[in-house]
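Subgroup meeting minutes
Present: P.N., E.W., G.H.
Scribe: E.W.

1. P.N. recapped why we're keeping a running log of single-chain structure predictions: easier to compare across weeks, and new members can see raw inputs and outputs side by side.
2. G.H. added today's entry (85 aa).
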Amino acid sequence: LAPPSVVKTLDLAVCTLEDAKGVGETEFLFDIESSEGGAKGDKIDGFAGWFTVDFQSRTDEVGKEFGAKIPNPVHFSTSPEIGDK
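Output recorded in log:
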């Protein structure tokens, strides 16, 4: 697997519908290794991505005053990785 790359970050307390639409141009690179004995130009059969969501209290000045206070932050990930990475 390639290292994680942030594609988009949203602050759900202040983002608009327009902010949430689509993904702008994002630059990231990754290497694809051929399977053992594979030849240059091997075919790629799939490409996968996943997402991570963190629900936690905001700590900036606006968030401290108006944001929801979340006593038990929640982290959710569809990633195949295990642990806090």
